[in-house]
Amino acid sequence: MTDDDGAAVIDKDGMDALVAVLAARGRTVIGPTVRDGAIVLAEISGGAELPYGWGVELEAGTYRLAAREDGAAFAHSAGPQSWKTFLHPPRAREWSADRTADGGLVTTPDATPPPSYAFLGVRPCDLRAIAVQDRVLTGGRHADRGYRGRRAGAFLVAVECTEPGATCFCVSMGTGPAVGPGYDLALTEVLDADGHRFLVRAGSEEGEAVLAELPSRAADTATRTAARDRVAAAADRMGRSMPPVDLQGLMRETLNAERWDDVTARCLTCGNCTMVCPTCFCTTAEDITDLTGDHAERWRRWESCFDRDFTHLPGGPVRDSPRSRYRQWATHKLGTWYDQFGSSGCVGCGRCIVWCPVGIDITEEAHALNRERASGAGEGAG
Amino acid sequence: MTGAFAETAAAPPLPYRVAQRRTDTPDTATIVLEPVGTALPPFTPGQFAMVYAFGVGDIPLSVSGIDGRRLTHTVRAVGAISGALHGVRPGQTVGVRGPFGTGWELSEEAGRDLLVVAGGIGLAPLRPLVRAALAELGRYGRLSVLIGARSPHELLYSDETAHWQAGARVLTTVDHPAPDWMGDVGVVTTLLDRAVFDPSTATAFVCGPEPMIRATADELVHRGVAPDRIRVSLERTMHCGTGHCGHCQLGPLLLCRDGPVVTWTRARPLLLIREL
What we know:
The structure holds 2 protein chains of 2 kinds.
Chain A: E1 8-10, H1 12-24, E2 28-35, E3 38-43, E4 54-59, E5 62-67, H2 84-87, E6 91-99, E7 105-109, E8 117-122, H3 124-138, H4 145-152, E9 155-159, H5 170-173, E10 185-192, E11 195-202, H6 205-212, E12 217-218, H7 221-235, H8 247-253, H9 259-264, H10 272-276, E13 283-289, E14 295-302, H11 322-341, H12 351-354, H13 362-374
Parallel strand pairs in A: 2-8, 8-9, 9-10
Antiparallel strand pairs in A: 1-11, 1-12, 2-3, 4-5, 6-7, 6-14, 10-11, 13-14
Chain B: E1 14-25, E2 28-35, E3 48-53, E4 57-67, E5 70-76, H1 80-86, E6 93-100, E7 114-119, H2 123-135, E8 143-149, H3 158-164, E9 169-174, E10 184-185, E11 203-207, H4 210-222, E12 230-233, E13 249-250, E14 253-254, E15 261-263, H5 264-271
Parallel strand pairs in B: 7-8, 7-11, 8-9, 9-10, 11-12
Antiparallel strand pairs in B: 1-2, 1-6, 2-5, 3-4, 3-6, 4-5, 12-15, 13-14
């Protein structure tokens, strides 16, 4: 079946089998599929639901499906969702509270059993994003029980990137297009005169077990070479890049830059960038009661730092101006995330550029800040 | 990532019964809470709890007193949740999560003069610190407590602060005196001349409105106190207390985790940036 390093090759029927094997193991298989004019992440029941023959055309503020003649399944880059939709869902119940007849209070942690997901088609940038959220939500003194349960049960099938979008900049963030650690299985899609096939490598024991159940053959040299070449070529076709400087330092030193006024003139503070970002984790607490008034629940839902109420204090919001809110988002993502969680909060997926209704481009803003700093203007006091 | 860390995020609050309630000022009350069953781990002065009013929500409240398993909080009614907690009565039950955040840390202050400066309800998180210092007076140098409030009827814990005089230099000032006010008038920094402390070795603990913190800390630095020896307690919105909701960011800091007590060395450059 497989040769020394365990790499194997599967065909499209092997992909069908992969979905079936994962489902047979009791997992809810989530993968890319065409729906509502986009490639979304949704539950799929068979390999045929993968977006064979579809790609995307991306630009700042633009996302369009585009038919492909080669029939590739994974020749598209990041869509409107990310895996945080499943691991760190938009709404989640944390606990409930009941008032007893004598005026007491009984609290109960949420007992929803964690789902058992298999994610099919995790891009290297998104694999890194999952690792980033792991550190935020379970890496500190207080671990999030719900997240840990969902995460521990997730089987990750990564797919190396061979078709970067015009808004992608993973190379400059060091997150792709080759896959990093953390996957159970890693695929590389190859299409050439020898056919449409996938190089498969296992990264865990369960990955090996799943691979063993698939109709596969040992990886041949031609397929290995083609896979490596396609990923290498993708690295040369990145649509965008961050300035090659210490971004943490750049953010710290440009807090008073004039560029923030420029971007504020365009930013609608809609928060789209925070919703589509695969690492943005902020939430708000929502307390509800039922009609009896004796049962209350605590829910957590996604929140955006672009909301004016995000920094509400009795005297008014701390970050009142749109300028301060865009600056918070960008400097957190690229700078203070290192201080707080030991890594960048940006993985270079480009979603914030694509889904910004006015096409604000975080790489362009970083380049502008870098130029302004180099010119000696806008020095921050930070 | 291992079992060494508790899965304490998103965990439900523990029920605590209101044992006492005392009205401090027209909009502020102090409540003493005792655990109905299991108690939370011990709190240290400066740390905070998330206190939950049934069905309304929870807010961060510093401990204003620590007495065995009992927790004391002083709450000012400024919104829906603080209003609900302000209105609780003995016998009612609230939920409490914690302890969260950094404390004032007295453990390494032996031999040093201690200077406590409070503005308004900022005295609440400082009260357990003053009590701890008074309980071991011989361990420290001289203790000064400077208290500022907008008006005499907004002074907290007046009965108790009068007793602190036995072990500390306690000075009080108000911005707007009442006709029968015989004490100082003016901002709290005007009291510094009469505090007893050696600026070269003293440690200062400051809490109050942010402009008051900045004015006090800058004045202390001007008088020769090292910024590293000035600790301030900062306030930001908090929804979780566990470092996950993102609301309490101040630049590189998550104040529920890295604060609320931080050194002036750390806080000053961040507070200088408008709307950080």
